[in-house]
Amino acid sequence: MTETLTHTAAPSLTDPRVLRGIELAWREADLLDRKEYEAWNALYAEDGHYVIPIDPDTTDFDNTLNMVYDDARMRGMRVTRMTEGYAIAAVDSATTARTVSRFLPVEVSDAEVVLRASQVLVAYKRGRHDLWAGDVEYRIRLGATAAEDLIVRKVVRLVDSEAAVPAAGFLL
To answer: What SUPFAM superfamilies does the entry give (predicted)?
Structure first.
């Protein structure tokens, strides 16, 4: 059974399925801050997508311009650039600290959890701090155990997505 929750429904953050989704989002954030990109990529389902749209309202990622729209192949290529050889993204990458919070369950079933959250990321590079903030939607496929849960889709909607955004050198 899938429960689509509304603003009037009291979302239960104590639901074990919701807690598993939140824990996966936190684990992902920790891996990214520690630059463990291969382990990060392993959190995604083979059919999973990592998306950073430009249009803050779009839901049609296939037919709109995105800053990032990575399927498994593109995520793998991105991880390779971040971890191997001489790539400016890897050699001169920022140190990051992110907070993912304000979780709200949107849909909950025994197979899948959809969460909305807020992310604030501070990046430090070359003596300068940059702030990146946005709303995040996680679609998480629940496995038989929490260790088998996978991200099916992560959409990061930056608060300034329609403005000029500098090259990051890290993953959101």
So the answer is: NTF2-like
Residues in the chain: 172
Strand extents, DSSP E, the chain: 3-4, 44-53, 66-70, 95-108, 112-125, 128-141, 150-158
What are the Cα distances from residue 49, in Å, to 75, 92, 106, 153? 8, 26, 18, 5
**pLDDT tens column, 69-122:** 999 999 999 999 888 866 555 556 789 999 999 999 999 999 999 999 999 999
Distance separating alpha carbons of residues 103 and 126, to the nearest angstrom: 32
For domain 3-158, which architecture applies?
Roll (3.10)
Phi, psi of 32 (to 5 degrees): -65, -45
Model pTM? 0.89
Nearest to 123 by CA among 155, 153, 166: 166
Question: pLDDT, tens digit, for every residue of 141-172?
Answer: 999 999 999 999 999 999 988 877 766 677 88
